[in-house]
Amino acid sequence: MLYNLRKFLSILLAVAALCSCSGGRGHYAQVTGTAQSVSYAVKFNMDGVNVPLENIRDSIDAILTKIDTSLSGYNKKSLLARFNAGEVIRPNDIFIDMYRLGYRVWERSGGAVDCAAAPLYDAWGFGFRNSSFPTDAEIQALLEKCGQKNLPPELSLAPDGTLDPSSMGNPKLNYNAVAQGYTSDVIARYLYGIGVKDMLVDIGEIWCCGLNPSGEPWAVAVDRPGEDEGYRDVWSSEGNACGITTSGNYRKFFIKDGKKYSHTINPLTGYPVEHSLLSATVVSKVSAAESDAIATWCMVVGLEASEKLILDDPQLEGYLTFADDSGNLREWISPGFKLRN
Predict the structure, then answer these.
(1) For residues 286 and 291, what is the distance between their CA atoms, to the nearest angstrom?
(2) DSSP conformational letter for 87
(3) What sections of 92-148 are H helices per DSSP?
(4) Where is pLDDT greater, at 19 or 242?
(5) Is the dihedral of CA 257, 280, 106, 193 positive or negative?
């Protein structure tokens, strides 16, 4: 299942398993585990790889641990959590890379995806803490003081390599929109580096390349919104290298005074979105982090803008589900989004 209930995997490894098998093509291995009740799986072809499987498992473990201790908003000892608490930190390469990525995503989306709008997400209870229903005045105050618009494109470190949040106005960051995809990309880069050519990296969001153990393109089931949820279509990678992510509004929400409030907050308005788009599955030839960010962008801007966004970029394909005027479930599929027959 692609849909991510929280849009961020706080990676504290609880279980790790290794297995390998000889399939119809090559010698495939799999590293699996669970983190915060979310399963992950990294599958890859060992042909031509001289690194022992146990070492690969340990390297993936180390990547997940480093990202958790750098970017998790749920790990109170992570660099991100300490930064958000106002503590002076010494950013590592992961923290700096993510900050740059967050700025680029904000700039490209015209503010629709804003990793520095964490106080808004928190105010609605969809961030790193619970919250009561915010008032209009509270929302307006948050809009004025938070957001990437108030921050520079690059972090300015002290001569000793430290970063004082107070020098930036004590911003609060939340990388839920890109962190899982970014994690898949980092693991994929490691696998490419040791000679892997066929892989599927599923850390909540997916990067895949090449063929599966049966010699067929990797296939991913697309989750179905609505009361009769169930897999209805299967996407085929056709052997291409790409990231694929689904974001949706149909599971995480709350109802107050009979009105349904989506977990997708528009950082430009400060309020949950209100439109017909229920879910967006985005394929990116660039990276899983991009597919992750674009899927969130789609859920902010709605159906028509999402269609244009996907069609205007040759690196993207998409599968959008929405409700029509009668409340019936409908779908829009871009020409290059390949469904398995």
Answers:
(1) 8
(2) -
(3) 93-108, 118-123, 136-145
(4) 242
(5) positive
Q: How far apart are CA 159 and CA 144, in angstroms?
A: 31
Q: Are 5 and 251 in contact (CB under 8 A)?
A: yes
Cα 70 from chain centroid (whole Å): 16
**DSSP element (H, E) containing 248:** strand 242-248
Which pLDDT tens digit goes with each residue over 251-294?
555 555 555 666 789 999 999 998 999 999 999 999 999 999 99
Q: State the residue for tokens 């996407």.
A: 235
Q: Buried (b) or exposed (e) across 186-222, using 16+ Cβ within 10 A?
A: bbbebbeeeebbbbbbbbbbbbbbbbbbeeebbbbeb
In 3D space, the residue among 297, 294, 292 whose CA is nearest the CA of residue 179 turns out to be: 292
Q: All domains of the chain, ordered by start, with CATH? A: 79-168 (1.10.3980.10)
Average pLDDT, the chain: 88
